[in-house]
Amino acid sequence: MIYQGENLHVDFVEDGIAELQFDAPGSVNKFDEKTLNQFSDALDALHKESGLKGVLVTSSKSTFIVGADITEFLTLFSDIEKTKTWVHKASRVFDKLEDLQVPSVAAVSGFALGGGCEAILACDYRIVDETAVIGLPEVKLGLIPGFGGTVRLPRVIGPDNALEAITTGANHKPEKALSIGLIDAITVQDKLKDAAISMLKDAISGDLDWKAKRQPKLEPLQANDTERLMTFSTAKALVFAKAGKHYPAPHAAVEVVERGAGEARESALNIENELFVKLTQTDAARAQVGIFLADQLVKGKSKKAAKSASKQIKRAGVLGAGIMGGGIAYQSAVKGIPAVMKDIKQEQLDLGLNEAAKILGKGVERGKVSPKKVAQTLNNIVPTLHNNELENVDIIVEAVVENPKVKGAVLAEIEGVVADDAIITSNTSTISIDRLASNLKNPARFCGMHFFNPVHKMPLVEIIRGKDTSEDTISAVIAYALQMGKTPIVVNDCPGFFVNRVLFPYFAGFSLLLDDGVDFPKIDKVMEKQFGWPMGPAYLSDVVGIDTSDHATHVMAEGFPSRMPRDENGAIAKLAAANRYGQKNGKGFYEYSTDKRGRPVKEVNPEVYDVIGQKTGDAEADEIIARCMIPMINEVIRCYEDGIVASAEEADMALLYGIGFPPFRGGAFRYLETMGLKKFVELADKYAHLGEMYQVTDGLRKKAEAGESYLNS
């Protein structure tokens, strides 16, 4: 044994050939501080080994290395001097692998991401099996590679390919990786180690010139000034167009490769260290790392709940076809769970099937969906006008019109049709689950299952627990949502549940700005371009549907009369009364059409001001942001204090996945913590005269005074 550590070991497997194998306790290998230290020690041992002829780098797991241990990041990054020392030391460990006086080959199965990819880049050769997935996803955490990836990858696959990979964080499967020179060979899984040893022997014998293969990674990038100018100018333009100003990491990725292009390895690595450390201190990196950790918490909680479910969902029923019902049926069917789609009108069934076919057709156009998959998915959807087709389903998802009397009647009827152990859910967006449950004889098997439109794109499913809902019901519905490829978050019952409850104060803040004469295109521009929402509040209202929003104001006013009173003279009510429903009928705040090429067009028609009144007031961007966001943040805090949502992390993920809260801000609680609780309280107090929704809770005020945090990380 050359080296034995808890997370990896090194030993000879053949004469002169040593295997460095990552073998951490648990299901995956990752570069935490302990593993990096052992990796360094193991390489020191190899450098001292006199009989060494070649080194094979492998993993004992089904996957190679999933990257760095993200759980260490936020603590580490809080101390900039510690971060500087850590990244400089850690990155030089990979130099030790690259500087071995013998050839090295990495044998990769499964994921080699982040630090895993950087480890195999430090090897001379890379061979993978058909399961391999290779990439540098650090940009998705608001960072750049920190273990030499920005230095080695451009010298291995060229600067154009490297910049595309690093700035997008895209993963590469074997064929793509081979085509761009990221790997040297592909083999089948059970031959991987043998093929890697064979390649290593060819390098040892001189049939492969490993020294020539290694040399470019140690030198400046081999490109002339004109090539570099074109490469980096193009990259900067593409990154700005895609990432904009809110995400510094892709811009830093271009800068680090450009500045390091004329330098040998050590100087280029110093530049990488410098920019990596700089990014660790940005709000965007803290937010995006926080998202990753919150996502892991939510997924772990969901998987644990799903494992405890006693009922398995093998066949689903969807009540109500149309766009939403068709979307739900499609999502179930495409993931392999047959869905019976029931409606009382044939034209609605046709609409639901057409919705599924349209989604699949777009997938075929993009080369993402095969004709076989189209056939399988459509065969998994059974349209029917008759209840008896639902007798053998395991779960019902009711998706009829958003009317409590209609929903109640449908739910009561279907309870007498389905099996006694079938689960019944409602895809309501605002109506109380307890109110709907009163129509059922057995409310224990009933809960809310709120999908977001468009169903196939939006990751979130809100699972709403009623006062009588059993935990077994919740667990089974969580498991079904996971089967559908969704992220389920469990919330407790209240008007609007969580996402819509906090969304409507945001709309109310927007409405007050309109009342004060601020024009809606300006508000949208500020909230999109400066705050970072994918859509401003006027545009979002049109997408949700003005009639839907207007209906929801009744529900919210009934539930929270003092904080969310209905404004009969507000823009939403006026537009609804004028039959301007938004995108669904082509006119709301904006008007919608298509140009000569069939591309969608959104524009302001001056006629809208005849409905909502002329807007001659003005407000600075900071005031627009404050007046829209303070009501939302306050309501998020109230939901947390009321026990509607279980944790700040789940609240943040619900807003990110449900309504597109800007990822670089990390969610409502991360945004609040980044601003600082005291500063937020001071800002809210400035606008407290505008009404109860601007007034902070006593709980928030106490936390601000005590310097406490809502987040666990």
Automatic annotation (TrEMBL):
Q: Which NCBIfam families match?
A: FadB, PRK11730.1
* Protein name per UniProt: enoyl-CoA hydratase
Q: Which family does it belong to?
A: Belongs to the enoyl-CoA hydratase/isomerase family.
Q: Which GO terms describe its biological process?
A: fatty acid beta-oxidation
Q: Listed GO molecular functions?
A: 3-hydroxybutyryl-CoA epimerase activity; delta(3)-delta(2)-enoyl-CoA isomerase activity; enoyl-CoA hydratase activity; long-chain (3S)-3-hydroxyacyl-CoA dehydrogenase (NAD+) activity; NAD+ binding
Domain spans labelled 3-hydroxyacyl-CoA dehydrogenase C-terminal: 496-592, 624-707
Q: Which UniProt keywords apply?
A: Fatty acid metabolism, Isomerase, Lipid degradation, Lipid metabolism, Lyase, Multifunctional enzyme, NAD, Oxidoreductase
E.C. number, please? 4.2.1.17
Where in the numbering of this chain does the 3-hydroxyacyl-CoA dehydrogenase NAD binding domain appear? 316-494
Note the Pfam families from the entry: 3HCDH, 3HCDH_N, ECH_1
User: Taxonomically, what lineage is the organism?
Assistant: Bacteria, Pseudomonadati, Pseudomonadota, Gammaproteobacteria, Alteromonadales
Alphabetized InterPro entries for the sequence: 3-OHacyl-CoA_DH_CS (IPR006180), 3-OHacyl-CoA_DH_NAD-bd (IPR006176), 3HC_DH_C (IPR006108), 6-PGluconate_DH-like_C_sf (IPR008927), ClpP/crotonase-like_dom_sf (IPR029045), Enoyl-CoA_hyd/isom_CS (IPR018376), Enoyl-CoA_hydra/iso (IPR001753), FA_oxidation_alpha_subunit (IPR050136)
Q: In which pathway does it act?
A: Lipid metabolism; fatty acid beta-oxidation
Q: Taxonomically, which superkingdom? A: Bacteria
User: Which species is this record about?
Assistant: Aliidiomarina soli
Report the catalytic activity: a (3S)-3-hydroxyacyl-CoA + NAD(+) = a 3-oxoacyl-CoA + NADH + H(+)
